[in-house]
Amino acid sequence: MTLSDMINFFTRNTRTILEYSENHFTLVLLAVGISLVIWVPVGLLLTKSDKWAARVLSLANTIFCIPSLSMFAILVTIPMFGLGRKSALFALVLYAMMPLIRSVYDGVKNVDRNVIEAAKGMGMSTRRILVEILVPLGMPVIFAGFRVTVVMTTGIAAIATYIGERNLGRFIQEGLVRSNTPMLVTGALIISVIAIGLDTFLGLIEKRVVPKGLRISR
C-alpha cells in the first residue's frame, strides 16, 4: 500500500468516511454520557457500604471480562434490543460500569480519613463532606477512570458494526474480508484519531478541574 492508495481511497469515499465517523463519534458520546449519569452516582452510593461495593464491583468485573462480540451477539437475541444502536449502546454502557464505578469508589475511599474526621469536627454534614471534600480530593482517580472509559468505549464501539451499526468498524470488517488495506487502515486510523483527540481534550479539562498537586502522573 502506498500513500497514493490512501489518498485515492479518501477521495473516492469522502462522504462514507464522514458518515461513519459521525456515527462512531455520536455512539461514543451517547454511551459515555449515559454511563456517567448511571455509574458515577452508583459509585458514590457504594462508598457507604463495603459489602455492597464488593458485590457490585464483582458483577462489573464479570461483565467486563465478557468478549465484546459475545456481548453484542447475546443482546441482539433480546427483542427489545435487536440489531443496531440500542444493543450497541446497552453493551457499551455495561462495559463502562467497571472503570467508572471502580474509579469513583477508589477515588472517594482513598481520601485521608484524618481529613474527613476534621471536617466532621467542624460540623460539616455528610453531604457537604462528600461534595466539598471527598469528590474534589478523589477527582484525580475519578478523572483517570473517565479517560480510560472514553478511550475503551471508542475502541469497542467498532465491534458494533457486526450487529448493524454503520460506523468506522465497518471499514475494518470489510477491509479484512476484501483484503483492502487502504480501507482497513482508514478505519483503524480514524478510530485512533478520535480516541487520542478525546483523551487529549479530557486532559485539557483535567488541568482546569484537578489542581496540579493532585494530578496523577502519566
Could you characterize the architecture of this molecule?
This protein has a single domain (3-212), classed as MetI-like (MetI-like fold). Helix 5 (85-109) packs across helix 7 (126-156) and helix 8 runs antiparallel to helix 9. It has 218 residues and is mainly alpha-helical. It is 78% helix and 0% strand. It has helices at residues 3-12, 14-46, 50-64, 68-76, 85-109, 113-121, 126-156, 169-178, 181-209.
Tally of domains: 1
Identify the CATH homologous superfamily.
Answer: MetI-like
Cα(first) to Cα(last) distance is: 35 Å
Major sheet size, sense and barrel closure: none
Low-pLDDT segments: none
Q: Quickly give the CATH architecture.
A: Orthogonal Bundle
Number of helices: 9
Helices and strands, in order, run as HHHHHHHHH
Q: Residue-averaged pLDDT, rounded?
A: 87
Alpha-beta classification: mainly alpha
Taken as a percent bin, the fraction of beta residues is under 5%
Q: Based on CA inertia axes, which overall geometry fits?
A: elongated
Radius of gyration: 20 Å
Strand segment tally: 0
The level of helicity is over 70%
Any idea of the CATH topology?
MetI-like fold
CATH class: Mainly Alpha
